[in-house]
Structures are given as C-alpha cells and as structure tokens.
Amino acid sequence: MGRSRISVWSIVIRQKMAGIEPLRGFPHVRTSLRTSAVCAAATLLALVTGPAHASEPAPDRCQHLTFPVPQGTVAATLCLPDGPTDTVMVLMSGSNYNHVYWDFPYQPETYNFRQAMNKAGYATLVADRLGNGASTRPLSVSLTATATAEALHGMVTALRAGLAGNAPFTTVVTAGHSLSSGTSVMEATGYHDVDGVLLTGYSHTLSVPDVLGVISTYQRAVDDPGFAGRGYDPGYLVTRPGTRAADFYGLDPDPRVVALDEATKETFSLTEYPDGLLSTLPGMSSFISAPVLIVDGSRDRMVCGPGFGTCTDTATLYAAEQQYFSPAARLRTHVVPDSGHAVNLAPNTGGYHAVVLDWMRSIAGH
Predict the structure, then answer these.
(1) Pairing with 1, which of 172, 204, 320, 334 sits 20 to 30 Å away (CA)?
(2) Residue 296, CB half-sphere, CA atoms under 13 Å: how many?
(3) pLDDT in tens, 78-103
(4) Residue whose C-alpha is closest to residue 192's, from 291, 74, 92
(5) Which residue spans within the chain are E strands per DSSP?
(6) Phi, psi values for residue 123, rounded to 5°
(7) Can you list the positions of beta strands (E) in 209-270?
(8) Which pTM value belongs to this model?
(9) DSSP output for 253-269
(10) Per-residue b/e over 154-176, b at no fewer than 16 CB within 10 Å?
(11) Cα–chain center distance at 331
C-alpha cells in the first residue's frame, strides 16, 4: 500500500516536472511578497467591507526577523503577548499559502490564529517557507521538505537560545498546515527538541484521487496574471484563479475570505512534496516524543479518506490516527465541522482555537 502510494507520487512529480530546465545563470533573488500581499488585502477589504480591522499588535510587540539557511534566509515575524511568557509557537504555512494564513487580516477576531494565541498569552513566530513570502526565492527545483524541516529546527534552536534581545523560550511548540505539518513531523522526529506538535490538514489516510484532483488545478506561476513577469522560474506553481474554494474550503465559507485568500495566494514547487509526503506513511510519526494535536476539517477532501470517513467526528479521527503515534505523543484530535482543508479560514474556526488553547495549557501549564 505504502509502496504504491509513493510510486503514484513519483509519476506525478516526473510528469509535472517534464520539460522544465533549471534557468542557467538565474540569480538568487530575495524578493518580498509581503508588501504586495498586504496592499492587495487592504484594497480588497476596502472594497468589500470598508476599513480593515487592524490585526497587528503594538509595533514594539512584533519583530521582523531573518534566519540564515544554505539557500538564503527564512523570514519570520515574532509577536509577543502583552504579558511575560516563556512559551512560543512556531507557525508555518503549507504549499499555496504564506504567513497570511496564520495572520489573516480580515475579521481577525474570527480568523486570525496568531492573534488568538497572543491574546491567550503565548508568543508566536510566523515564518514563510523558502520560496514564498519574504523568504529567499531560490531555484524551484532546489526546494524540499527536508530543507524546510532543517530551517524549522534552526528557528527552534534560536528561540531556545534567545534572539533579537528576547529571553530564551523554555517551551517551544511547532504548528504546521498540510505540507508544513509534514515538515513538523520530520523536525520533531529528527531532533526531539520541541514540547508539542500541532498538525493541521494532516493524516495517514490521504485520498490519492482527491490529492491528484487538487494538483490538477495547479499552473505555472509565470502563466498566472498575478505572478507573471515577476522573475519566477517555470517550476514555481500556483492554483489557477477560481479553484481555491473547491480545493480548500468546506460548506458555506465567507466569500470575502475566499476572495482575500485568492488575492494573497502563494507559490510553491512540486519538489517539496515527495519527501514531505513520507510523513503521512506509517512509521515516521511513531518516533515523535512530544504531545501531538491533529486538527482536520470534516470535509477535507484530501486527508479524510473516501467519503470523508476518517473525519466523521473527533473520536473517529482519533481511532484512525492513534495507531501511528507512541504513548509519549499523548495524541489528541479535533474535527472542525463542515470545514475543508484550510481550517484556519472556516467560519467556525473559533472552536478550533479553543481546543488548541486547552491543549497548550496542558503543555505549558498556563
């Protein structure tokens, strides 16, 4: 079963990459999408809702940081709560998204995960993967989940040591979505240096036909009106306009959320998938020695198996997943009713925030 799944992915990757040659002499460019994304978001919000709600805390509570990696730098923003804390959550988005996924500017009291954690007293470090957001954009064929996991480890190490004038954090929790849930598994099993692992949009029962269906909606970034002419090499992909609602949402999403999601969508490379998908096969996750919380939407077409059966409810998801984790993981699960793959952007995401905060209190003790 596992072998056939890997062979399917190998075929898909080879077909998608066929005919794409690395650009010779293509410079390593550090290009920031942060400004364009914020401008697009602000414009859209002004059109559909009037003035946007401010989701940023006071300026002195957030710092924009960069972390050196072999391919350049990973950009991240560290935000502190109003009071003292020794606990930090490292939040990294999966493919198709950047930092905006965790720090959503529209109706932040509902959709902004970062803000909810800061208000509860936890620090957050929201990071862009290599190749998107404000991080370095190397050649697309050089991007892998393994490199992302190593970058994540570097951030965890820096947070524990103290950085940018901040005291060392004694409790560090990683949080991933989809692809970056896989890299969180890889980091936790490779280094055993985190105190908790939040996995969203993740399971061991992927629906291969549905995953392939989502992949079929991808196109080259150079062919997308929002990215053409901006120096992307042909291996960088994005979702085709108008496909994200079916790909990543469940029942009755707010159309303004979907529109803003489209306006701030992100690039990625298929070369990030093969090693990242290994984390969804039996074996790797059993070596995690820290508490784990898995959160999926009940209508996540990619991770819930045929007919969404694995995500019928929280108990069903737990029954399906507990065999893949050791007792040390103290596994918890939660299903967000009617949500699709993008659980952060579901209208009822507040219930998921409450579950995460309860789990965090079990780890941090406050």
Answers:
(1) 334
(2) 32
(3) 999 999 999 999 999 999 999 999 99
(4) 291
(5) 62-69, 72-79, 87-92, 123-127, 171-177, 196-200, 218-220, 236-239, 268-269, 292-297, 332-336
(6) -75, 155
(7) 218-220, 236-239, 268-269
(8) 0.85
(9) --HHHHHHHHHT---EE
(10) ebbebbbeebeeeeebebbbbbb
(11) 20
CB 293 within 8 Å of CB 355: yes
Q: How far apart, in whole angstroms, are the C-alpha atoms of residue 353 and residue 360? A: 10
Count Cα atoms within 13 angstroms, Cβ side, for 212. 12
Q: What does 53-98 look like in DSSP terms, one character per residue?
A: PP----GGGEEEEEEEETTEEEEEEEE--SS--SEEEEEE--TT--
For β-strands 62-69 and 72-79, DSSP reports them as: antiparallel
At 134, list the tokens: 């404000």
* Rounded (10°) CA dihedral 115, 116, 121, 125: -50
How do residues 284-296 score in pLDDT, each as one tens digit? 999 999 999 999 9
Decide if 183 contacts 149 (C-beta within 8 A).
yes
Give backbone dihedrals phi and psi of 152, rounded to 5 degrees, phi first: -60, -40
List of E strands, 14-170: 62-69, 72-79, 87-92, 123-127
Give just the sign of the alpha carbon dihedral 287, 203, 133, 20: positive
